[in-house]
Write a structure and sequence with these properties.
Keywords (chains A, B, C, D): Amino-acid biosynthesis, Aromatic amino acid biosynthesis, Lyase, Phenylalanine biosynthesis
Distance between the termini of chain A: 52 Å
Pfam family, one (chains A, B, C, D): ACT
Oligomer: homotetramer
Domain ACT (chains A, B, C, D): 203-280
Domain Prephenate dehydratase (chains A, B, C, D): 7-188
CATH architecture of the largest domain in chain A: 2-Layer Sandwich
CATH topology of the largest domain in chain A: Alpha-Beta Plaits
Low-confidence stretches of chain A: none
Largest interface: A-B, 42 and 42 residues
CATH class of the largest domain in chain A: Alpha Beta
Enzyme class (chains A, B, C, D): lyase
Strand content of chain A: 25-35%
Number of strands of chain A: 15
Number of domains of chain A: 3
Shape of chain A: elongated
CATH superfamily of the largest domain in chain A: ACT domain
Helix content of chain A: 25-40%
Amino acid sequence: MSAAAPRYTYLGPEGTFTETALLQVPGAEEAVRIPAGNARIALEKVRHGEADAAMIPIENSVEGGVPATLDAIANGGELRIIREVLVPVTFQLVARKGTRLEDITVVSTHGHAWAQTREWFDANHPGVDYLTASSTAAAAVALLEDGAAHQAAVCAPIVSRTHPELEVLADNIGDNPDAVTRFILVSRPGPMPRPTGADKTTLVIPLPEDHPGALMEILDQFASRGVNLSRIESRPTGQYLGHYFFSIDADGHAHDARMQQALAGLHRISPATRFLGSYARADAQPPVVAPHNSDAAFAAAEHWVAGILRDGAAG
Amino acid sequence: MSAAAPRYTYLGPEGTFTETALLQVPGAEEAVRIPAGNARIALEKVRHGEADAAMIPIENSVEGGVPATLDAIANGGELRIIREVLVPVTFQLVARKGTRLEDITVVSTHGHAWAQTREWFDANHPGVDYLTASSTAAAAVALLEDGAAHQAAVCAPIVSRTHPELEVLADNIGDNPDAVTRFILVSRPGPMPRPTGADKTTLVIPLPEDHPGALMEILDQFASRGVNLSRIESRPTGQYLGHYFFSIDADGHAHDARMQQALAGLHRISPATRFLGSYARADAQPPVVAPHNSDAAFAAAEHWVAGILRDGAAG
Amino acid sequence: MSAAAPRYTYLGPEGTFTETALLQVPGAEEAVRIPAGNARIALEKVRHGEADAAMIPIENSVEGGVPATLDAIANGGELRIIREVLVPVTFQLVARKGTRLEDITVVSTHGHAWAQTREWFDANHPGVDYLTASSTAAAAVALLEDGAAHQAAVCAPIVSRTHPELEVLADNIGDNPDAVTRFILVSRPGPMPRPTGADKTTLVIPLPEDHPGALMEILDQFASRGVNLSRIESRPTGQYLGHYFFSIDADGHAHDARMQQALAGLHRISPATRFLGSYARADAQPPVVAPHNSDAAFAAAEHWVAGILRDGAAG
Amino acid sequence: MSAAAPRYTYLGPEGTFTETALLQVPGAEEAVRIPAGNARIALEKVRHGEADAAMIPIENSVEGGVPATLDAIANGGELRIIREVLVPVTFQLVARKGTRLEDITVVSTHGHAWAQTREWFDANHPGVDYLTASSTAAAAVALLEDGAAHQAAVCAPIVSRTHPELEVLADNIGDNPDAVTRFILVSRPGPMPRPTGADKTTLVIPLPEDHPGALMEILDQFASRGVNLSRIESRPTGQYLGHYFFSIDADGHAHDARMQQALAGLHRISPATRFLGSYARADAQPPVVAPHNSDAAFAAAEHWVAGILRDGAAG
């Protein structure tokens, strides 16, 4: 990243959970923050140097992987994930000041937010009509315009904090109180975050052939070195039915010997495997590594083999 | 299904690719056809007896698995897939009669259709504005109403066939000419389609624990009996990050011995495994089965073990 | 076995460790005991009905598997192991009464016994000459004949107990004080010993093809059902280099569901697999069985699959 | 090996199949050849510098692995196999000149040879008595001494060639006409034979723990890199029942990348793994190596990982 104030882009508009995630990055509050219309656009800004890094959602505990992110980062110029951020997904019902719940006939929000608050509305305000919006924040901000077709919006808490002219009619209206979304901060290839001992490595691995053995061979590259997977998502390559790539998060850092060996094995089996970065886990939980999978064990094994080859240099 | 004319529901409205898929089912043309607002609603109609079967999309060669379908069939009352239908995804640009391409400033369609025709618009009519619609058919039919904000729609060919008042401005405008969507016909549990020799079995398998070994154990249940997988999709259970179920299509029928053994193994490892049905493959391609995985081999093995137990009945 | 007093054969002559093993079988003391020249002869006596059962050594903690036994039981008419017996291998140095250690210039015993007492002789009577004998007992008994070329013999303690005219010059002269030999009691196929909860199953499994995958597939039949192996020995089939069969002891009884499934899987992969019996472990140590490999888990899985097939009987 | 005429030791005495094997080594005919009483003694001569190399049998197509060799090379100072030799096992029946078959009442030979010619005697000279000898050659040579208790011997063809005073009564009397014994030439660690493209690597791998998973992990080190095994023998370590090491021949040379990776993996899992050498296969058959297991694939994978680490050197 440049020495000057960094420029961040993020999945906008302002007031989304993604901006909340970005503001958790040290220095982001003072930085230039450029909203982008979708994940692909945000990553293109990074690729073209218009931004130093992009914050985009990759995974939601309720909805699953975010296809647009998974696809946008798997294709195009190489990028690196340098940080992950977890944001609890809590929804508020907001309206113009003075609005009462019984006045609301139409509520607007993004489809995902609507899906995650249906039970609250069924229990507390059944029969309300729903108007789709491009984002939760857009639905809320539109309330301030004259002639809005809706009287309330479902959005992230950040909106009411930054728009005091909106009133919170109900807080924590999500159906799943433990819902959390995971965001990644993505930059161009460059210096990798140092290993912290509790790291994650993200990979894109095309399934080389259409047989179950191929996926098992891929998984075995991790399992045989004791590398645990914390996320595995399948995505179609778009070429034909049954042609997939896998988006995988593995516990450990590219500087760990067991991860390097797993990476090399993956490259042999699926040469188009993409390395998307090693970075600190948001939860700072270190993995359990068996002694025979430690850096020391790999170094000892390499030393032993080198000794065999040196002593037995072909005569 | 009832002896009377069957009642089908499908992901509506009329004129979608899903209706095209439904019309490929023998007798569907004369049957009652009830459009449903989403996959969950369609399946609920089947569960409650309001329809005999539902046609819904499960997988698209470009977009991947359809999350709403995967989730709706994985939860709730048990259902059975009894047929699969493949429909090529071809898009038309339609407008009211007399409209010329250069007159179009706003085009409307479903988000997926827009994503799959972007290249055509960039090349043939750059700069056009896009208005989201709830379905491709809805966007097209809305053109016939006065005061529509858009002048053209992207939709399936079925719409212009049933609405002669619409004009086709351009055909086959999809970016990927080989795009295909796979649909499934879903009914309540009942008699299974007979094995044809080229069958598919669909399963929902919750990952029992958060470790890579569990997924490998699951895959091994298939691999160790020579059962090939043609689709594997991960989906979050919605409980917490990293908690998945897998939606899997496996080659073969529940009446095949190797599939029965794989099913039993899956039930042991992941007791909440769900059987979603065995049915004929749309492409009628039979699997290659090694002699030691044939029904005959399983029968011989069972006979051998039975002989050991019988001859050696505990004294 | 016949209702009359059973007739046992064993690897003779009298006074060997094998007779010691046989005498641990309840009732053997009063039974007819027929020494046999080698394991093959002993088993042939059983096959032909000349004996009800044969006691032969199968494994020694120092020397390994006994090839003659492994080969003799793997070929020819089917037989069943019905019991195992462990005998500590302790050696005595015996001589005619009045002989002193310093009088001994030549010692005789079986080659194995000589190999296991070399350290004692090196330390206590270096330079003594060694004369090969066909068995430890034969070497000892020959001392009582006139004109014997040797003055001492190495043999099992049973010999001095039954031949008071021999004197024990030294006891426990084996180099490995924990040495133990495992013996098996073999009968014709018939009622199997009841499961005790701590059982062993012995198998002969020809390696179907010359590739490492075949052995892994065989081992996976056990591992995928959580069946532990306590012994694995490779033996050539005698046909050509690199053609093997494996002699395996697995924890569990043929009446255990996990063992039945493993047996069936082995039969598919290697149809010439031979079942040599299930019987109580001499050490009475029960195996640790994970819940998903229990009889209950297998029964539940079978019940589940049966339900799928019954409810969905092809229409 | 020293520049002077090499000194070879071998499992003697003169006239055994082992000497036949040694004479196939270029230059052995002119070299010093020192018979040794057993494999352990032969290897000790090499370890102590009394011989430059030892020829000993390792495997017989009928009898299997030679335990004495497997154990003697697995323990003690490190040694290297530098060559393998295959010798067909053909037996002759020899006697003093003038002896007729019907004159023979006692025949002598080594136990293994007797076992492999039983069918011939049963068919051609039933009822003959058998006298054990320490080697086939010793039995034959003893015929030339006065007062021999036997009138004929079973031995290798080399004996009658070097002792014209013996007459061959019958040739090729072995029960298995394809029987072959494999011998190895063993030296102190030093320059390794160059890779020929058709090589073999011999290893001693202690089973790290008593569970089936350990053996599968070991086999997976080979299988996951496409390394085929041509021999696998289990041997007890002698410590307690169920404690094994495996003696393994794998296709390929330590200079092959896939073998180096397999060796490193074995060292991690079983740090006491012993490398016994890489050398040309006697049959010169090259292995089939899949593209993703080739040296080029390993080099490309390593290059890719190095690039990731270099470009992303921790900032």
